[in-house]
Amino acid sequence: MVRHAALKNIYETEKTIGTGGFAKVKLARHLLTGEKVAIKIMDKDCLGDDLPRVKMELEALKNLSHHHICKLYQVIETETHFFLIMEYCSGGELFDHIVQCKRLSEMESRSFFRQILAAVAYLHSKGYVHRDIKPENVLLDKDQSVKLIDFGLCAKPCPAINAYLETACGSPTYAAPELIKGDKYLGEGIDVWSMGVMLYALLCGCLPFESEKIDVLYKHIVSGHYQTPEHLSEGSRKILRDMLETDPTKRITIRELLSHPWVQLGYNEPVSFASLSQELRLDNNCVNTMAAHFHMSAEEMWRHLTVEQYGSHAATYQLLLSRKKQGLPLRLGQYTSRTPRSRLQSMRRTGGKGTYVMLPTSQTQTAQNDKENGGKQMQPPDVTPAKILRKRPRSPQRDSCASPAPKKMATTDKQHGSGTKLQIPKRSNGSEPNTPNNRTSSPSSRLLNSIERKFQHVRRVLTPKRRSTESAQPVLLSAKNMSNISTTSSNSPDQVREELIKALNNRGIECVCKGYSVRGKLQAAGGKVCKLSFELEVCLIPTSANSCGSVVGIRRKRLKGDAWSYKRVCEDILNMADLK
């Protein structure tokens, strides 16, 4: 169900797969290609002083193109929301992989670390620093390839990457000592420290610096003392010491890490951070597919794609490239109403690279007759140069996360802040309008009203009722969708569900059951703030490709809150339920 008009007829949103302080991420399907995407939705009213960070995140994502950085397909900006359409990574968070495996082998840790290192080195080469590197901000795609995400705290030091920064930000458990002390710092140095904490988490399955009390945690970090488990090799201990050096002037650099002996072990070569993905490359098959669908010549289609970066057509093109890479057929479906070409009539480019602002239909034609600051700007086909409105009246029908459907508004010119005139039926007989004292209507109008009422009744009868979202049976997983799964020794899904609910209740965690999904919510002290929310779904896992048998499993998903608290809670619940 699409709750935002800006997404209608382009994407079909499915379920929420993540939430943050001022954003939520929804799984969605791109209607033309059928490909899955992740849509990050940000409410402008909730952003407040964080709006500049969103602008920086958009700038970074538009200027970065790397095979280990999550790809941005499209940006839509309305009066009330930002919509970032991103690459969907079905493998989940790297953190969930740690939870499932308890800790990773040195070989697997090195494989993931090399990919993360390549992404961060590329990021730094472009002049950006991430400042929030942690396993929760590293996703895995279906091939278990790493994708770095969440550039909301990134910065571009001026005049160069070696300029000092002052803003203290990031996650406390991954913060470098210089951040905690309040010193000026180099962005590269704090990224290296965070990567060191993350590498420790991969190798050990826990954090090097941990405490429930924030002041105690900070003391541990500043001291730089941490436990070194016996299973760690000398090479692992050495690279951790190099990265978790409390003196930033002595800490190993990204360039030195690329050729570190531990990093090269088994690969016999340094890490290359060169990008394997181009920003925009010509693929004749994809261009021809789109040109045929939109009734354009291939040349016109390609010209349009080179101008309209991060618009709906560009997203379609990138998703077609993805399908081709997977060996899937190149074909486009049909929109239920407006096509992207007609949709472009109601879009106008802002000053940002490839960001489009959705205009009310009534404003579009007026805006198209204006000039932009006395100059010309490249526009998509069928869109004339338009003036950027510095401030637009706020529309009463806002895209709201809290409202499942727009409310009906009184039809007055004042409420239509744009100055749109309402369409009032003309009266040929010169009679007065229908006021409370003049409600008589002609026989013909009564007949039309009667026909309309009957038509509405027929439409309600024929409209399919919305299906219940509750599953009658647990989901049978495919071999491609086996991330974040714990197997059980039980063969009864109902019994597993009941044991989960019982364990959650015994631990004092509020839970809601919907079908075979159990959603838990842990309240902070006082009970007013949600400290942690997660979902445990009972599912069926096929025993083999050639067998009809299956075992009962539990699929885990963190929705909100601290990742390590989530890890501990999940372990406790599974132990209490005795399902391992």
Strand fraction: 15-25%
The biggest sheet amounts to: 7 strands, mixed
What is the top-level CATH class of the largest domain?
Answer: Mainly Alpha
Q: What's the Cα radius of gyration?
A: 27 Å
Number-wise, the strands total: 17
**Overall pLDDT score:** 77
Low-pLDDT ranges:
335-440, 466-470
| Number of discrete helical segments | 18
**Head-to-tail CA distance between termini:** 36 Å
Give the assembly state of these chains.
single chain
Enzyme class: transferase
GO cellular component, one term: cytoplasm
Biased composition (Polar residues): 334-348, 417-433
EC number: 2.7.11.1
Question: What's the structural blueprint in terms of helices and strands?
Answer:
Layout: E1 11-19, E2 23-30, E3 36-43, H1 44-47, H2 51-63, E4 72-77, E5 81-87, H3 94-101, H4 106-125, E6 138-140, E7 146-148, E8 164-165, H5 177-181, E9 185-186, H6 187-204, H7 214-223, H8 234-243, H9 254-258, H10 261-264, H11 284-294, H12 298-307, H13 312-325, H14 340-343, E10 347-349, E11 356-358, H15 361-368, H16 443-462, E12 475-476, E13 485-487, H17 493-506, E14 510-514, E15 517-523, E16 530-542, E17 550-561, H18 563-576
Helix pairs in contact: 4-6, 6-8, 11-12
